[in-house]
Amino acid sequence: MVTHENGGGHGHHQAPTGFIRKYVFSIDHKVIGIQYLCLALFSVFVGMALSALMRLHLGWPNAHWSIFKGGLMTPEQYLALMTMHGTIMVFMVLTTAPQSGFGNYFLPIQIGAADMAFPVLNMLSFWTTMVSLLVMIAAFFVAGGAPIGGWTSYPPLSALGEMAGPGQGAGETLWIIGLAIFCGASLMGALNFITTLIDLRAKGMTLGRLPLTCWTWFVTAILGLLAFGVLLAACILLLLDRVAGTSFFIPGGLVITDQVITWHKGGSPLLWQHLFWFFGHPEVYIAILPGMGVASHLLSTFSRKPVFGYRAMVGAICGIGFLGFCVWGHHMFISGMSPYSAFAFSILTMTIGVPSAIKTFNWLGTLWGGKITFNCAMLFALGFVSLFVSGGLSGLFLAQPALDLYLHDGYFVVAHFHLIMGVAAIFGMFAGLYFWFPKMFGRFLNEGIGKLHFWLTFIGVYAIFMPMHFLGLAGHPRRYFDTTAVEFLQKLQPVHVFISIAAFITIGAQLIFLFNFFYSLYAGKECKEENPWHATTLEWSIPTPPPFDNFAGVEPVVYHGPYEFSVPGAADDYIPQHLAPNLVKKA
Amino acid sequence: MLRRRSEVGSTTVALSLAVFLVLMTVVTVYIFMAKVWWFPPAITEFGHEIDDQFGRTLLITGIVFVLAQFGLAYAVFKFRDQGQKATYFEGNNTMEIVWTLATVVLFVGLGLYARNAWAQVHFQGAAEGALPIEITAQQFVWNFRYAGPDGKFGREKPELVSASTGNPVGLDSTDPASKDDIVAPVIAVPVNREIELIIRSQDVTHSFYVRELRLKQDAVPGMEIHMHFNAAVPGNYEIACAELCGLGHYRMHSMLQVMAQEDFDKWVKDQEAANQ
After folding, report:
1. Taking CB atoms and an 8 Å limit, are A342 and B238 in contact across chains?
2. Cys-Cys with A358: which of A199, A316, A445, B193 at CB 3.0–4.6 Å?
3. B55 within a domain of the structure (yes/no)
4. Which residues from chain A sit within 8 angstroms of residue B70, using beta carbons?
């Protein structure tokens, strides 16, 4: 283990020489961070391809495509795409990239450490995640195909095996095993993050001088540690119900297609929902908190102003983390749960709007009176704020059980969580990528292509997800293969067509991004400077790209807060955290 | 240097971003206000209560939405890099306290205000003399059972369930109370009469959902969940399943028929005849 006593690992590392130790089974947090990002990049394009197929079908359910004999897809194929889209996006993209990807790469550097506290565990957690991805994707290729129960996988549908529907056999089993493996990987990662941040901060890096990115990675890791343990237990119980004949989630007396199920009794379907959402709601914050950190960091850097209300921001991050564990019941208002607990969960959920609002106000306060530069990183950070507001406010409707009676399990919910935990979180990742790419790879992402990517994506996501609110208001239930069986849904078809077209344009824009990524990796404008953005945190104090041991064996000393921009009396409009006070040039 | 270069054209980008934010906000608010896609009219008393609460929530979130998006648009344009020096301030405790308290009052107040509608649906039971109707969901149909003239639901046994031979809920014919029970694929109710629903499922979780009632309730295997309503407007209303229940989820559909008492009496007679 790397400890503070042995110098935070400073001066202990030997750079590996062989290809395998250097790029495959690497214990360097930077390589592992990039590995996670590559895994997420692969996954996000898989997830997006699945959504493209769904949108093609939803837009034109009756079209006959000459390349797809017998129609584009069957109802069970649609549900399998939907389930895998949700699962891959939530776990392999939203959970891995912001935290395990960027966090792995930049948390140790930003706190002045040479590596994570447990480098080997770090490697293990990445490769365990990789195994989990492979197991999940394998679900597509077994008899019956991928599961059709949605990413929430409610029993008994998910517990009864093939008799409950195609995909609920081997596909569902693989899905559960894959998820359980993922829980293990996340637990390892969370432990590592928490230990690293507590133990390996450089001299002078007090909690009050931590960049907000580090605060969010820290709180996210705590959420992960508490949430994934519960999901792991739930997965194991569900697996036992399926393969060992237990009945944790299956009540007695079930009848499926006239067949009485005599071998299960005494279980509770609601127990799964409680366990799942005890994980599932904090998961929303696991996805979005690092994005909030990146947005705060970038808004400050590119408006050349300190973060407005740093302490309030830290308080809000911790408040969101704590309250995140007190609100899971708002996913279960109509589940048959006690209506009195529903009311309590409702008030707690309304309360979580408060730290979210504090953050929004503080972001505006950070921009106020600034000197704003509009590069791609900043544009995505600004987009994040706009999307966070739009996606967050619809939560105030869904937090009220009385309104949820109408809106629950409809497109209003789909719009809400896609905007906030999907798109806003992804904007946080894009912002981070445009910002840190030069540090990571020594080249800038192309700004021109990047701006095109930003505009198409920003307009595109609003065009996709705003109209979904209106589908929800009209009462459109989610997870519907098509609208043919319900009369009131049929006049909503034009909205589906509009959303599908918007989705294809937005997906096209991501291909532009993919091109930019690989083009810039090899032919982008070179970045030789340590600190091209004139930023303050420690990653900008070391060479580009960073050497194997980050700080060349010398532990940095931190003298300043993380956002010392435009300080009166200083010659430059930024004071790096590591700059000794006597070296700060006076105006 | 990169930052200098990006300063050029910052007005164009700032203006575009501000204009887009304003446009997006205006269009969104317009579509909400014009009610282009909207709820169908409510047919229950608490339905109107829910609509009122939706209106209050829409008003408050709408104001916050407009202020935040316009504020962002204003800030990006006003404070774009024109070579000025950024002002240095790290925050303002008074403002933090004010907006924290303001949002607590606003959001939590809204939540407390919503209690009334929820209480009508859930805290209060069905009124005296309500007509009980048992709903049994199964992949992918709804079954509605009426107790018949004796007012008692007969015994059901899982092993007797046989959708193919016309006994979808497993009625036990040896129980005298089951003799007059009616099982129908649609639900008919007399207008202005309190109805008590007893919601169950045979296999997986489904959800009973009627837009015009403003009511949705999961049908959970192993549970009997009671709901109640009193529909004031005759008509035919669609029932759609709202909880993913398998490949036929999208076609798990039925109708709620609200009718005058005499029409209902006739409907019951017809069903009895059909059940013989």
Report:
1. no
2. A316
3. yes
4. none
Supply the pLDDT for residue A7.
56
State whether residue B53 sits within 8 Å of chain A by CB.
yes
What percentage of chain B reaches a pLDDT higher than 70? 96
Is A19-583 CATH 1.20.210.10?
Answer: yes
**A518 — contact with chain B (CB < 8 Å)?**
no
A197/A202 Cα distance (integer angstroms): 10
Could you tell me if A369 lies within 8 Å of chain B, comparing CB atoms? yes
Q: List, for residues A400-434, the tens digit of each pLDDT value.
A: 999 999 999 999 999 999 999 999 999 999 999 99
- Whether B3 is in a domain gets the answer no
Instruction: Identify whether the C-beta of residue A102 lies closer than 8 Å to the C-beta of residue A290.
Output: yes
Mutate which of A274, A298, A341, A374 to test chain B, going by most B C-beta atoms within 10 A? Answer: A374
Counted domains in chain B: 2
Q: Which residues of B touch A534 (CB under 8 A)?
A: 3
Distance between CA atoms of B199 and B220, rounded to whole angstroms? 8
Q: Which residues, other chains included, contact B69 with Cβ-Cβ below 8 Å and sequence gap of 6+?
A: A386, A389, A390, B21, B22, B24, B25
Tell me: pLDDT of A2 over 80: no
pLDDT above 60: residue B4: no
Residue with tokens 């939907």: A82
At residue A418, the pLDDT reads 97
Is B13's CB within 8 Å of A374's CB?
A: yes
- For A156, the closest of B68, B204, B248 (CB atoms) is B204
Q: Say if residue B134 is in the same domain as residue B27.
A: no
Report, as an integer, the average pLDDT of B256-265: 97
Measured between CA atoms, the residue of chain A closest to residue B245 is: A157
Q: What is the pLDDT of residue B3?
A: 47
DSSP codes of every residue in A121-162: HHHHHHHHHHHHHHHHHHGGGSTT-S--STTTT-TTTTTSGG
Could you give the strand order of the β-sheet that contains B182-184, starting from the edge strand earlier in sequence?
Answer: B182-184, B141-146, B131-138, B194-201, B225-230
Range of the domain at B136: 130-275
Domain match, B101 and B151 both: no
Asked whether residue A5 carries a pLDDT value surpassing 70, the answer given is: no
Mutate to test the interface with B, among A148, A153, A157 (most CBs of B within 10 A): A157
* Position A518 confidence tier, pLDDT thresholds 50, 70, 90: very high
Lowest mean pLDDT among A18-22, A324-328, B104-108, B146-150: A18-22
Closest partner residue to B38 (CB to CB) among A370, A402, A474 is A474
pLDDT at A71 over 90: no
Contact in structure between A123 and A27 (CB atoms under 8 Å):
yes
d(CA B24, CA B21): 5
Is cis: bond before A576, omega within 30 of 0? no
